[in-house]
TrEMBL record:
Its EC number is 2.4.1.1. Belongs to the glycogen phosphorylase family. It catalyses: [(1->4)-alpha-D-glucosyl](n) + phosphate = [(1->4)-alpha-D-glucosyl](n-1) + alpha-D-glucose 1-phosphate. Residues 13-120 form the DUF3417 domain. Keywords: Allosteric enzyme, Carbohydrate metabolism, Glycosyltransferase, Pyridoxal phosphate, Transferase. Its cofactor is pyridoxal 5'-phosphate. Phosphorylase is an important allosteric enzyme in carbohydrate metabolism. Enzymes from different sources differ in their regulatory mechanisms and in their natural substrates. However, all known phosphorylases share catalytic and structural properties. This is glycogen phosphorylase. It comes from the Bacteria. InterPro entries: Agluc_phsphrylas, Glyco_trans_35, Glycogen/Maltodextrin_Phosph, Glycogen_phosphorylase_DUF3417, Pyridoxal_P_attach_site. It holds the Pfam family DUF3417. Coiled coil: none annotated.
Length: 872
């Protein structure tokens, strides 16, 4: 019979065991080995059955066992030590507390998904795992972050396969009371809630749940509350589910409701109010509108409120693919705002103006969440150097007149949280070398350029470690493959072959990620005969472990999964290549350490960063990848291989895949496999071990989330906090008024004449030209602008590359016609084709970038000498 109601019966812990509850509710256990070991010792069998989830474990331990532990002095000593360690971790001074007083009092970090642990399945892929690692690293560093997300009652889907290899989705119902969460409560004990106004007088209410991620609180909004109608209860049903209106409501709840949840949390706990709001991808962009509405209630007008909000906002874009950005129909957005809906105090046209694609090539009727994020954030970044470049190109239409390199989008290359992703065996090897505390500090705080202590680890130790990790992966793969085949309908008698799947002494390649088409899951199948030869080579075989989920609505991605599964089902090769369904954090933590090679073959440059290869590298796995994302930035032949790309415009997609697959096969046949199997005089693969050593030495410190979060603090959060503090209501009004005055005057700001004189008649290296420029500034004064000479090498179309910008100084004016003269030197500091031009930019002490206002004046055709080109 089916129950009509479900609820969770919590165990009553003996008083001496009460610290177990605190340890279970703080997600630090997910990356703290001693805490996990303590819970495992409570009941090893039930620990395994609970998939390593302390909350589930404590809910299943019999009272008799709890009574035994309450009298076990050795266990109680361990419990006291682990509880004391957590207390020290939560209250002690960490990296952030040793920095300057300019740092923000608090930062709110918004993301649609968070991958903290498999026990809290609120993630779909890299964006969520990155967000989880960001929170964990912030906790380790002592950064006062508040995380904000949604609590999805079905999480993301669980993946199984049909008998013929077709992906099937399952959405298990999650009970928040069985998750490592607690409800945030008002002072009177009632659950804390936020509410959004919906059209027609309806409301969307959401409860606030709290997950404690070390020192960092994560607020998660859940719309499945009794006060909501059935439709509103389902708003937070699934991650990335539903149609446009469903997604819009999710993103309004995340952004607008999220700010209200932060205000509620700070009111109830005394936590400092955030000075900086960080939007992790465009999904949370509406948070800026709520903050504008807050300021409007104090009497500040829209334009001044916008400037104040922008000053303290950081926006991170994660996609180089326009299709990966949420875009909504203009009328749908307009329907949900205004007098009869949410934010009635803000004119709907103002809201629409922040997200509309009002630039060349844009869709004028679409509201773009990333565009709104950029317009509402004074500081923005991509997630690798290459992705920063791609983002500046992609969004350059928002800054007309500027070269893409000048678009104000910087980059902070992603990192991964080492304590989460480094295998315990790898940590112990480091601890034996330099001590446990130094190893923990190296993996969390970071700060060094190299891990030189790796040089002192013996070759035999490194090779033995790699063999142990590979063997563990083989056991894990066989268990998962057996479970998968049983789900596909196979009987036990059919599955004897699984005991021979994979070999702990064979070169092992891993490939696991989401399955959009640009990641090219099936590139390895391009020449199946050649792949079979690699898998079955008599002396240098390879074996491949593949995992990945296609989006439920992506039938093309599902076909790629099916194609790979059918190849892996072939009895000739199924002991050498496997597809594991339901890729998630628990699988990943076994997969990365056990592989020798991590394969990544996206269409360049469509991989924003690609952090899975970073996690593999931290465990001594070598990367074999297209030069995309982070690998483009840090690749060196000392510790990996680059797959050549065929991305010329004359190459169609099929031809490109053929060429790049052939290059992949060549690398595996001629360089990778021979390097793994060749043995030196001592019987070890000396050159392979040296590549592992170089990976750990040089990549280890770079790929850390601790390094990433420190960069955010130093390069984005701290400047944003300074700007936030500078934008008092009066200065915000001043800046808004100044921008309005500049934009009104700008059509009449011109470069009217440019002339240059030189002491010699020849243009030789080291020559200095004296520039004299006449400009019209309309109603603006010299203090409002900067006149620059821009010079550098030129190409055949006279475009300036690697430009140098030198400000010119006013030398007189205004004349009767209102024109000013500017002068300054121009040094010919490089040989070859050289050119210069002049431009006018607005300037103000409160601007974060000279491109921020989005206007620039340059000479018209024919102004000056050869339109600014000096010589060839």
């Amino acid at each position: 019979m089916k129950a009509i109601r479900r609820f969770t019966v919590r165990p009553v812990l003996p008083e001496t065991l009460h610290p177990l509850s605190d340890l279970a509710r703080n997600l630090r256990w997910s990356w703290h080995a001693e805490t996990r070991d303590l819970f495992q010792s409570v009941d090893p069998e039930r620990w395994a059955a609970s998939d390593g989830d302390p909350v589930r474990l404590l809910g299943s331990v019999p009272p008799r066992r709890l009574a035994e532990l309450a009298e076990d002095r050795r266990f109680l000593r361990r419990l006291a030590a682990v509880a004391d360690d957590l207390r020290d971790y939560l209250t002690g001074e960490r990296w952030y507390q040793t920095q300057s007083s300019e740092l923000p009092a608090a930062i709110a970090y918004f993301s649609p998904e968070f991958g903290i642990t498999a026990a809290l399945p609120q993630y779909s892929g890299g964006l969520g795992i990155l967000a989880g690692d960001h929170l964990k690293a912030a906790s380790d560093l002592g950064v006062p972050l508040i995380g904000v997300g949604l609590l999805y009652r079905h999480g993301y889907f669980r993946q199984t396969l049909s008998r013929d290899g077709w992906q099937q989705e399952h959405y298990p119902l999650l009970d928040p009371n069985e998750l490592p969460l607690v409800p945030l409560r008002e002072i009177d004990g009632t659950p804390a809630q936020v509410a959004l106004a919906l059209p027609g007088g309806r409301a969307l209410r959401a409860r606030i749940w709290l997950a404690q991620v070390g020192r960092v609180p994560l607020l998660m909004l859940d719309s499945d509350v009794e006060e909501n109608d059935l439709g509103e209860r389902g708003v937070t049903d699934r991650l990335y589910g539903g149609g446009s209106e469903h997604r819009l409501l999710q993103e309004m709840l995340l952004g607008i409701g999220g700010v209200r949840a932060v205000r509620t949390y700070c009111r109830l706990t005394g936590h400092a109010q955030p000075e900086v709001f960080h939007t992790n991808e465009g999904h949370a962009g509406f948070l800026g509108l709520e903050r504008i509405a807050e300021l409007a209630e104090t009497g500040l007008d829209f334009e001044a409120s916008l400037e104040a909000v922008r000053a303290g906002t950081v926006f991170t874009t994660h996609t180089p693919v326009p299709a990966g950005i949420d875009r909504f129909d203009r009328e749908l957005v307009a329907h949900h705002f205004g007098p009869d809906a949410e934010l009635p105090g803000i004119d709907v046209e103002r809201i629409l103006g922040l997200g509309m694609e009002t630039y060349p090539g844009g869709e004028p009727n679409l509201f773009n969440m990333a565009v709104m994020g950029l317009r509402l954030g004074q500081r923005a970044n991509g997630v690798s150097l290459l992705h920063g470049h791609v983002s500046r190109e992609m969004f350059s239409g928002l800054w007309p007149g500027f070269d893409p390199d000048e678009v104000p989008i910087t980059s902070v290359t992603n990192g991964v949280h080492a304590p989460t992703w480094v295998a315990p065996e790898v940590f112990r090897l480091g601890a034996r070398q330099i001590g446990a505390q130094r190893t923990e500090d190296a993996l969390t705080v970071g700060g060094s350029d190299r891990w030189d202590a790796v040089a002192d680890i013996a070759d035999q130790e490194i090779w033995d470690l790699r063999r142990v990790l590979r063997e563990q992966l083989v056991v894990e793969v066989r268990e998962r493959l057996h479970a998968s085949w049983r789900q596909r309908g196979a009987g036990t008698a059919e599955l004897g072959w699984i005991d021979g799947v994979l070999d702990p002494d064979v070169l092992t390649i891993g490939f696991a990620r989401r399955v959009p088409s640009y990641k090219r899951l099936t590139l390895m199948l391009r020449d199946r005969d050649r792949l079979m030869d690699l898998l079955l080579h008599s002396e240098r075989p390879v074996q491949i472990v593949v995992a990945g989920k296609a989006h439920p609505a992506d039938d093309g991605g599902k076909r790629l999964v099916q194609e790979l599964v059918r190849f892996a089902d072939d009895p000739r090769v199924r002991h050498r290549i496997v597809f594991l369904p339901d890729y998630g954090m628990a699988m990943a933590q076994k997969l990365y350490p056990g592989c020798d090679i991590w394969l990544n073959n996206p269409l360049r440059p469509l991989e924003a960063c690609g952090t899975s290869g970073m996690k593999a590298a931290l465990n001594g796995c070598l990367n074999l990848s297209v030069l995309d994302g982070w690998w483009d930035e840090w690749f060196r032949p000392d510790f990996g291989w680059a797959i050549p790309t065929a991305d010329g415009t004359a190459t169609d997609d099929d031809r490109r895949d053929d060429l790049e697959a052939a290059a992949l096969y060549d690398l595996l046949e001629q360089r990778v496999a021979p390097r793994f199997y060749e043995r030196g005089q001592g019987g070890l693969p000396d050159r392979w071990i040296e590549m592992v050593r170089q990976t750990l030495t040089h990549l280890g410190p770079k790929v850390l989330a601790g390094r990433m979060v420190r960069e955010y603090v130093e390069r984005l959060y701290t400047p944003a906090a300074r700007s936030h503090r500078a934008l008092s209501p009066d200065t915000a009004r001043e800046l808004a008024s100044w921008k309005s005055r500049v934009r009104a005057a700008w059509p009449r700001v011109t470069v009217d004449h440019v002339e240059a004189s030189a002491a010699t008649t020849t243009a030789e290296l080291g020559t200095t030209l004296n520039l004299r420029v006449r400009v019209a500034l309309a109603d603006l004064a010299p203090d409002d602008v900067e006149v620059q000479a821009v010079s550098g090498r030129v190409d055949s179309q006279d475009r300036i590359a690697d430009a140098t910008c030198v400000p010119l100084k006013p030398a007189g004016g205004p004349d009767p016609e209102g024109r000013w003269v500017y002068e300054g030197p121009l040094s010919l500091d490089r040989t070859g084709p050289f050119g210069y031009t002049v431009r006018i930019l607005p300037t103000h002490r409160l601007l974060a970038s000279s491109a921020e206002v989005g206007v620039v004046a340059v000479p018209a055709e024919g102004v000056g000498e050869a339109a600014g080109v000096l010589m060839r």
